[in-house]
Amino acid sequence: EKNKNINIEKIEFINGDRILNIRLKQNLRQFELNKASDNSFSLTIKSSYEKQVISKNSAGVATKYSLKAEVSFEIQHKNKIENVNFVETFVMDKLDDDFENRKYEDTIKQNFANSISQKLLNKLSSI
Fold first, then answer.
1. Which terminal residue of the chain has fewer beta carbons within 10 Å of its beta carbon, N or C?
2. For position 33, what pLDDT does the model report?
C-alpha cells in the first residue's frame, strides 16, 4: 500500500470544528510515528464547518440544509512548506427527530473527514 511510506511527525490543529478535527486526528493517527518511513511530514490543520438552511416548508421550518466542510493543511516536508485545501459539501434533508438529525449530521461529518483524510494521504504520498 502506497500510504505505508508516510510518517506524520506532528499534527497541530489551529482551530475549527471540534468533531471534524477529532475525526481527522483519528484517521491520521495511524501514520504518526511511523518509524518504518523516512518520508516525514508535519501538519498544521485549520478546519471550518458550515450548516445553512436551503429550504423551508410553508410553516417556515427548515427542511433541507447545505453542509460544507473546509480543511486547510500546511504541510512541512524537508524544509519546504506546501498548503492544500479540501472542501466537501452535502445537501441533507432534515429528519423529524432531533436526535436522529444530530446522528445523521455526525455521520456526514465522519464521511467528510474520511474523504478529506484520503485526499490528504494521496497528496502526501505524491510529494
1. N
2. 73
Report the residue count for the chain: 127
CA 117, CA 127: separation in Å to the nearest integer?
15
Given a cut of 60, is residue 8 above it in pLDDT? yes
Angle, CA of 111, 72 and 18, to the nearest 5°: 55
Cα angle for residues 70, 51, 21 (degrees, 5° grid): 45
Q: Residues near 4 by Cβ (< 8 Å), separated by ≥ 6?
A: 34, 36, 37
CA distance 21 to 14: 10
pLDDT of residue 2: 58
- The residue to which cell 508535519 is assigned: 42
Amino acid letter at 120?
A: L
* Residues 95, 104: Cα–Cα separation, whole Å: 9
How many of the other CB atoms lie within 10 Å of CB of 61?
Answer: 9
